[in-house]
Each structure stands twice: as structure tokens, then as C-alpha cells.
Design a protein that fits this description.
Elements (H helix, E strand, L loop, with lengths): L1 H5 L22 H35 L18 H4 L5 H34 L5 H13 L2 H13 L2 E2 L2 E2 L4 H25 L3 H9 L4 H30 L2 H6 L6 H8 L6 H46 L8 H7 L3
Antiparallel strand pairs: 1-2
Helix pairs in contact: 2-12, 4-7, 4-9, 4-11, 5-7, 7-9, 8-9, 8-13
Length: about 325
């Protein structure tokens, strides 16, 4: 009634002063530069680190296409494919590469098998001297290669039976390489095993799988990436070793020893070609492993989606391919 007598009241709105937001200040050029540096510091640092690591590799690849004016392949002269088309111009270099590859393959196979078994024993079992064994495993990695090579040389020189004495050569190099790559294999595989959930294996056994089937279908696929990485590391360490090999080689010449000898008279561009082939081969293996892993993950995701869709259509609960992991998560 009061409103009808006095007429319509004019609506007034009192705004809160806190609702007034001041316009953002415009950044100066220096402030924008500092903000960009702060946001991209990690990316810039990573890029510089990659350039620093791969620049020598790029130089090696570049000079594999060089035709040196003299014996030294240290300055660019002209582009040529002569080194690529005639890799074995010096037969000694191909024999040295063959020797290094043979030793590296044998050392990788033996070292990976022994190192994997040692890693399983150290992670999965408790026995007297386990802590001491863990400590001794790191000694070949921490010992300087000069000390390790001279110690192995003294060992081989004192290995004799009557008039027979251990000759220095292919087999002494192989034994030395197996000895020092085992430590790297053990550490790599042990790190992979330590991150595995043992309840996955227990769940497989609850589903009536015996020890052999559990190892084949559960443990081995989970540990396989660590074993493969350890094998690649062992191969590269064996193929690249010079100091220990130089002590125990006798008259056997490996690829690093050939490079050391050729450096005194001039390293041919064929060395750059072989180094490029080894680098591209290692890079190809890594990329292939990444592609296969991505395909396997996508296939697993598609199979999981199809299973859940089929189970939903049938009106049954979908356990999915991850049922083993769900069982493992249950409290015991």
C-alpha cells in the first residue's frame, strides 16, 4: 500500500568496492623476458645438454663423408662416399671390428645370464652373506679400469699348469669383459626387480599357475625390459672397452685398439663410417623398442575396451585384462 501511495521505488544497487578490479599492469620488455626465461629454463637447459652430448656424434657422422687431403681426417676437404663404398680398404679394421663384435656378443650373453640370476638371488632370497655380496657387486664398477686391468693381467699370468700357461688373447679379453659387465647387469636387473609387486606372482599362483608358468607369463614379461637394457649396456661397454683390453689382449687387436694405433699415423674415414653404423644401429634398436612398446600398450587398451564393452552388453561385471592386478591389490 505504501508503494502505491508514494509511487514505484527506484531500484538502487550498492556495489562492493572489492568488486572493482584494477586493470592489469602492462609488463615491460624486461619483465616479459624474465618471465619467458623462468618458464623455459628447463627446456633450454635440456636442449643445450642434448646439443653438448650429440655434437661430437654429429661431427663423427659428418667426417665419414669426407675425403681427407692427407692422412689426418680432422679438417673438411670435400664430400665423398668413398669411405662408405670401401669400408674394408684396410683389412685390419674389419678384422678388428669382427673381433670386438664377437667378444661383445659372447660377453653380453654370458654376463646377462649370470647377472640376471645373481639379481634374482639378491632380490628374492635371503641367505648368509647377502649384504656382503651386494657390496662386492659394486667393486668392479668403482675400481679404476687401470687397477682392474693390471689385476686381471697378473691373474692370467699366474694361471699355468705344468709347462702350460694361460695365453693372452681372445679368451683372456672375453673373461675380463664378462667379469666387469656382470656388475652392470646385476645393478640394472636388480633395479627392475625391486620395483615389481610380488603380489602379482602370488595372484597368478592363486589362479592355479605353477612356478614355471608364473615365471614365464608374469615375471619374465615384467623383467624383460630391464634385462634387455642390461644386455645393451653390457654390449656397449664390452665393445667400447680399451684399458682392460689393452692389458690382456696379447697380440689380439680389437676395434678400440685399432683406433688407438691408427691415431699415431692418421685415423682413416672408415673408422667414422663404422662408428656411424654402430650409432645408427643402437638408435634403431631403441626406437624399435619404443614403437613396439607403444603398439603393445595400444593393443592392450583396445582389448580392455572390447572386453568391458562385451561384458557390459552381457550384463556381467567386467574384470578386464587387469584382473590379475586387481586381485593383487586386495589385502591379504
Amino acid at each position: 500500500m505504501a508503494a502505491s501511495q508514494t509511487g514505484p521505488r527506484r531500484a538502487t544497487t550498492a556495489l562492493d568496492p572489492q568488486l572493482y578490479v584494477a586493470a592489469p599492469k602492462r609488463e615491460s620488455g624486461v619483465q616479459r623476458a624474465f618471465r619467458w626465461i623462468r618458464e623455459h629454463t628447463l627446456a633450454v637447459y635440456a636442449g643445450l645438454a642434448l646439443v653438448y652430448m650429440f655434437l661430437p656424434v654429429a661431427i663423427v657422422i659428418l667426417f665419414s663423408f669426407n675425403r681427407p687431403a692427407g692422412r689426418q681426417n680432422t679438417s673438411w676437404n670435400e664430400f665423398s662416399l668413398q669411405a662408405w663404398t670401401n669400408i674394408c680398404r684396410d683389412p685390419t679394421i674389419c678384422r678388428a671390428v669382427g673381433t670386438s663384435v664377437s667378444i661383445a656378443l659372447l660377453a653380453t650373453i654370458v654376463g646377462t645370464v649370470l647377472g640376471t640370476m645373481i639379481a634374482f638371488a639378491l632380490v628374492r632370497h635371503r641367505f648368509m652373506g647377502r649384504s656382503t655380496t651386494n657390496l662386492l657387486i659394486f667393486l668392479p664398477m668403482a675400481t679404476p679400469e687401470v687397477v682392474l686391468g693390471s689385476s686381471l693381467l697378473a691373474l692370467f699370468l699366474n694361471m699355468y699348469w705344468g709347462t702350460w700357461q694361460m695365453p693372452l688373447g681372445f679368451w683372456t679379453i672375453l673373461l675380463a669383459h664378462i667379469m666387469f659387465v656382470i656388475s652392470f647387469v646385476v645393478v640394472t636387473v636388480k633395479a627392475r626387480l625391486s620395483g615389481l609387486d610380488p603380489r602379482l606372482e602370488q595372484a597368478a599362483m592363486d589362479l592355479y599357475a605353477d612356478e614355471r608358468s608364473t615365471f614365464r607369463y608374469v615375471t619374465l614379461p615384467l623383467v624383460a625390459p630391464g634385462i634387455a637394457g642390461a644386455a645393451l649396456l653390457a654390449f656397449s661397454l664390452s665393445f667400447d672397452d680399451f684399458i682392460i683390453t689393452n692389458f690382456n689382449s696379447g697380440s689380439t687387436v680389437t676395434f678400440p685398439m685399432y683406433i688407438w694405433g691408427a691415431a699415431q699415423r692418421g685415423i682413416p674415414p672408415q673408422v667414422n663410417v663404422i662408428a656411424t653404423i654402430m650409432f645408427v644401429g643402437a638408435l634403431g634398436i631403441v626406437l624399435l623398442a619404443q614403437v613396439l612398446g607403444a603398439q603393445r600398450r595400444r593393443a592392450s587398451a583396445r582389448a580392455d575396451a572390447r572386453f568391458r564393452a562385451a561384458a557390459g552388453a552381457a550384463g556381467t561385471p567386467a574384470a578386464g585384462p587387469t584382473a590379475l592386478e586387481e586381485i593383487a591389490r586386495r589385502p591379504s
